[in-house]
C-alpha cells in the first residue's frame, strides 16, 4: 500500500471548486430536470454488452506486467482508442522483474523434499544452522534464541518487512517462511532494502511438516539461494487524448484511468479488465461529445507491482499539466457480482471535487455513494501531485480477489452499468461546454450529503 499524508491541494485557477459545490448540503437527490437531461446525454449511450465483451477478450489470459500477455492487451486497448478517434500513444517504462534463481533447503539427514522459491530481492547466500520456529514472527514471539539460526516463520498478520526485521534484529541469519492457511503454493515474499538475508518460501504443507518435526528434535538445515537477480522488462501505459472544442477551451484536464495488468496466473476479469472495459466505453461515448475540457483516458501497466505505471505517468506531467488537471477518476474492480457496494476511496480519507461530484451523480442515478480512505491503486500518484482524485471500487472485495477464479462468469452487468453511468455523468458534469457552471443554478447539479464509510476490504 502506498500512502502519503500530503493534503489534497486544489490546483490554482480551478474553475470547479468544491467550495461552491458543497458536499455538506442537506439534499441527496436532484429535483432539477436539467441535471437528468445532461446525464442522459452520456448514460443513454452506454452499452453494457460492449464492456462485457471487452472483459471477455482481455481475461482470456493473464496480463502480467512485462509479459506478452500484457503487450497483447496494450495493443488491443490502443487500437480501440484509435478507432474511437483519439490521439493515442504507448508510453513504455522500465520495470524490474525477479528471477528467483535456484534455492534449496537441505535438512540434516537429507529427507526433506519440499519445493522452495526465493523471496523477491533475497540475498544470494548459503547458510547452515539450526532451524528456529518463531510463529508469525511478532515482536513477542521472536526471542534471543533465534540468534545465529535460520528463522522458520508462518506467513500472515504481519508484513514481510516486519517479520524479517523482527528476526534480523535478534540475529537470525536466514528466513524460511511457509504459506498462510487457505493460501496455496509458494510464490510469495519480499526482502526489503537493507534486509540483507537469504529468504525462501515453502508451501503450507511443507512448512507444517518442519514445525511438527521441530517438536521432536532440533533440526540443522542448509539454506541456499543462488543466481537470483533482477531482470529489466518493459511495461506500458496507454494514453488517449481528446482535445476540447477549440472555441470553448477552458484549459482544464480530466483523466479517467484503470490498470490493464493482472496478477500472475490470474485472468483478472474484475481486477482490472472491468475497469479497463468501463474506461473504454466512456471513451467511446465521449469521443464525439462536445466538451470545453481536455479528456484523457489512460490504462496503466504494472499496478500490481506497486503502481509503477501511474507513478511513471504522473512523473512525466509538466507543471502546467498538473496545474490544469482538475480531476482523476480511477476505476478498479468495478464489476464483481460477489463484491460489496460501490465506494469512493481517497488516499487521505478527505472529500474532494471528485467525490463531491461522484456522490451527486450517484444520488441522481441510483443512490448516494459514500467515501473512505484507501491507497493501493492508481489514484495515489495523482493525489500526490495535488490533483483531486478518487478510486471507484466495490468493497468488501470478492472471495477470489487475486486468484485464478477471477473469471468472466463472476462479472455483474448491472454493476458495470451503474459505475459507468455514475463516472460518466461525473466526468461530463465537469467537461460539458456550459461549465464553468457550478455558480450558475441553471446547470449546476444538486449536491449530495454523503458520509465517511469505514468499509472493510
What does this structure look like?
- This protein has helices at 33-43, 48-58, 68-83, 160-169, 204-214, 269-286, 308-316, 319-324, 353-365, 380-384, 413-431; strands spanning 87-99, 102-107, 117-118, 126-133, 150-154, 174-178, 199-202, 220-226, 229-242, 253-259, 294-300, 325-331, 341-346, 371-373, 389-395.
- By secondary structure, the chain is of the alpha/beta class.
- The chain has two domains: 33-97 and 232-431, 3-Layer(aba) Sandwich (Aminopeptidase), CATH 3.40.630; 101-227, Glucose Oxidase, domain 1 (3-Layer(bba) Sandwich).
- The strands form two sheets. It has an eight-stranded mixed beta sheet, with helices on both faces. It has a seven-stranded mixed beta sheet with strand order 2-8-4-5-6-7-3, sandwiched between helices.
- α2 (48-58) packs across α11, α6 packs across α11 and α9 (353-365) packs across α11.
- The longest helix is centred in the C-terminal third of the chain and has 19 residues, at 413-431.
- The protein is elongated and about 80 Å long.
Amino acid at each position: 500500500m502506498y500512502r502519503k499524508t500530503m493534503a489534497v491541494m486544489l490546483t490554482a485557477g480551478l474553475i470547479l471548486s468544491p467550495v461552491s459545490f458543497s458536499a455538506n448540503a442537506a439534499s441527496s437527490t436532484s429535483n432539477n430536470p436539467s441535471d437528468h437531461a445532461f446525464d442522459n446525454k452520456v448514460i443513454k449511450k452506454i452499452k453494457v454488452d460492449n464492456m462485457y465483451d471487452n472483459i471477455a477478450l482481455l481475461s482470456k489470459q493473464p496480463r502480467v506486467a512485462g509479459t506478452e500477455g500484457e503487450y497483447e492487451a496494450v495493443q488491443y486497448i490502443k487500437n480501440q482508442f484509435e478507432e474511437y478517434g483519439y490521439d493515442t500513444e504507448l508510453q513504455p517504462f522500465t520495470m524490474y522483474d525477479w528471477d528467483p534463481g535456484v534455492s534449496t533447503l537441505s535438512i540434516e539427514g537429507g529427507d526433506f523434499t519440499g519445493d522452495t522459491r526465493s523471496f523477491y530481492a533475497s540475498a544470494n547466500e548459503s547458510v547452515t544452522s539450526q532451524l528456529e520456529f518463531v510463529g508469525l514472527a511478532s515482536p513477542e514471539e521472536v526471542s534471543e534464541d533465534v540468534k545465529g539460526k535460520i528463522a522458520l516463520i508462518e506467513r500472515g498478520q504481519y508484513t514481510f518487512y516486519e517479520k524479517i526485521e523482527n528476526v534480523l534484529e535478534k540475529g537470525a541469519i536466514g528466513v524460511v517462511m511457509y504459506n498462510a492457511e487457505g493460501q496455496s503454493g509458494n510464490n510469495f515474499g519480499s526482502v526489503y532494502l537493507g534486509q540483507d538475508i537469504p529468504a525462501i518460501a515453502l508451501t503450507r504443507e511443507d512448512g507444517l511438516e518442519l514445525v511438527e518435526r521441530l517438536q521432536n528434535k532440533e533440526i540443522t538445515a542448509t539454506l541456499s539461494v543462488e543466481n537470483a537477480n533482477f531482470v529489466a522488462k518493459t511495461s506500458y501505459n496507454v494514453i488517449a487524448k481528446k482535445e476540447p472544442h477549440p472555441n470553448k477551451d477552458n484549459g482544464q484536464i480530466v483523466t479517467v484511468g484503470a490498470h490493464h495488468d493482472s496478477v500472475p496466473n490470474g485472468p483478472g476479469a474484475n481486477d482490472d479488465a472491468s475497469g479497463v472495459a468501463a474506461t473504454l466505453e466512456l471513451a467511446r461515448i465521449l469521443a464525439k461529445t462536445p466538451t470545453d475540457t481536455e479528456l484523457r483516458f489512460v490504462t496503466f501497466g504494472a499496478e500490481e507491482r506497486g503502481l509503477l505505471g501511474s507513478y511513471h505517468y504522473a512523473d512525466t506531467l509538466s507543471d502546467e499539466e498538473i496545474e490544469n488537471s482538475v480531476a482523476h477518476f480511477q476505476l478498479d474492480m468495478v464489476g464483481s457480482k460477489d463484491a460489496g457496494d460501490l465506494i469512493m476511496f481517497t488516499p487521505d480519507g478527505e472529500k474532494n471535487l471528485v467525490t463531491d461530484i461522484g456522490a451527486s451523480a450517484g444520488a441522481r442515478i441510483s443512490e448516494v455513494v459514500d467515501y473512505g480512505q484507501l491507497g493501493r491503486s492508481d489514484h495515489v500518484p495523482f493525489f500526490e501531485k495535488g490533483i483531486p482524485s478518487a478510486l471507484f471500487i466495490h468493497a468488501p472485495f470478492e472471495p477470489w480477489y487475486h486468484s485464478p477464479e477471477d473469471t468472466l462468469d463472476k462479472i455483474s452487468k448491472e454493476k458495470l452499468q451503474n459505475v459507468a453511468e455514475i463516472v460518466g455523468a461525473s466526468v461530463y458534469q465537469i467537461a460539458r461546454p456550459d461549465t464553468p457552471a457550478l455558480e450558475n443554478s441553471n446547470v449546476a447539479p444538486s449536491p449530495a450529503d454523503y458520509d465517511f464509510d469505514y468499509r472493510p476490504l
